[in-house]
Amino acid sequence: MIPIAQPEIGEEEITAVTDVLRSGMLASGPKVKAFEDAFAGYCNTSYAIATSNGTNALHAGMLAAGIGPGDEVIIPAFTFFATASTVAMCGATPVFADVDPRTFTLDPAAVAEAITAKTKAVMGVHLFGQPFDLDALQEICSDNTLMLFEDAAQAHAAEYKGQRVGGFGTFGSFSFYPTKNMTTGEGGMITTDDPEIERRARLYTNHGQSEKYLHTLIGYNYRMTDIAAAIGLVQLEKLDAYTSRRIENARYYDTHIRASGITPPTVMPGARHVYHQYVIRLTEECPLLRDELIIHLKNQGIGSAIHYPIALPDQPVFAGTSYECPVSRSLAQSVLSLPVHPGVSQDDCERVCRLLNDLSG
Ligand SMILES: Cc1ncc(COP(=O)(O)O)c(C=O)c1O
Question: 49, 66, 90, 94: most buried by Cβ count inside 10 Å?
Fold first, then answer.
């Protein structure tokens, strides 16, 4: 079976974890500090604050930026649930804007339309590893005095006009879940250039503790462990090689999938797409329905997945809100992710392409 996702764990990670276990320092210690420094260096940001997962990074980042009750944060209608839930966790309201049908990332025109007097920020998502339109969103945010946040959970090493994501907005947020482009098991990171955001994010991730047993606000325990950070340090060293493999696999698909009814992903000029997922769109010309294709692929030992089957405004928890997001709704019906991770070989890609191309006879 070619799985849709697979963490790449080698002897180096195993040794790094064993060393931490032997050291006796299992909680947040020197490895976390070293990982934060290395990750900030990698993203070219002044600070990085490690967290226990990407959801907590988004939550703490927004709290640090002052998001709270009465505020609205504009987010894409097509993304993973945590982008929306963390806005709600701050007591604020997620406002859904539609996405661009080619890139699947926030449509700047839809964002401009969604702005109200309560809007405090826009959270763009570098979905599937492709940076959103940072120039357009930065301009809208600066014209309307809004903050811009980056949900970079899926976009380690992605670049916009030669600059790594995570440093464009008030803060960036990453996830190190095992399916992500690099992992720590569970883990997350907040990146920022703003010393005040860094200070407040550290408070929110550590019980609001400004000194030992001195609590200046209600914070959380969102700390990363040294065990996780030790894995992260090794994975960060390997990230460039992993990313090259993902891009090579994507190029192979781009140039070899010729089946009718399948639209490959579009990469915007100036974007370095790092293919957390390689997401195709099925059109009416596709000889099989999406569910049939998933089964057909599975029967041939090829994993695939739907990211995401429901546009966020249509999730039961958001029932009662009404949003026009035709593109997001149509994507939810038509997208399909193919295996693109570093464990996928060129032979595997060839098999996937042959199977898809054979569909049209
Ligand atoms: C776009 C996006 N945001 C946030 C998250 C949350 O990250 P985590 O699973 O590490 O909590 C994810 C994880 O899948 C994600 O894909």
Answer: 49
Report the CATH fold assignment for 240-359.
Aspartate Aminotransferase, domain 1 (3.90.1150)
Ligand 1: does its nearest atom lie under 6 Å from the Cβ of 83?
yes
Alpha-helical regions (H) of the chain: 11-23, 30-43, 54-64, 82-89, 108-114, 134-143, 195-205, 226-256, 290-299, 326-334, 346-359
**11-98+106-235 belongs to which CATH class?**
alpha beta
Are domains 11-98+106-235 and 240-359 of this chain identical in fold? no
* Segment 144-150 mean pLDDT: 98
How many whole angstroms from 153 Cα to the centroid of ligand 1? 5
Distance of CA 230 from the midpoint of ligand 1 (Å): 21
* Ligand 1 center to 340 CA (angstroms): 18
- Separation of CA 80 and ligand 1 centre (Å): 7
pLDDT computed for residue 136 by the predictor: 98
Give 253's Cβ-side CA count (13 Å radius).
27
pLDDT per residue over 187-245, tens digit each? 999 999 999 999 999 999 999 999 999 999 999 999 999 999 999 999 999 999 999 99
Position 84 confidence tier, pLDDT thresholds 50, 70, 90 = very high
> DSSP characters for 27-49?
SSSHHHHHHHHHHHHHHT-SEEE
Q: What average pLDDT does the chain have?
A: 97
- What number does the ligand 1 atom closest to the CA of 276 have? 16
Extents of the domains making up the chain: 11-98+106-235, 240-359
Q: Is the CB of 151 under 6 A from ligand 1?
A: yes
Pocket of ligand 1 contains residue 175 by CB under 6 Å? yes
Prior bond of 308 cis (ω within 30°) = yes
Whether this prediction's pTM lies above 0.90 is answered by yes
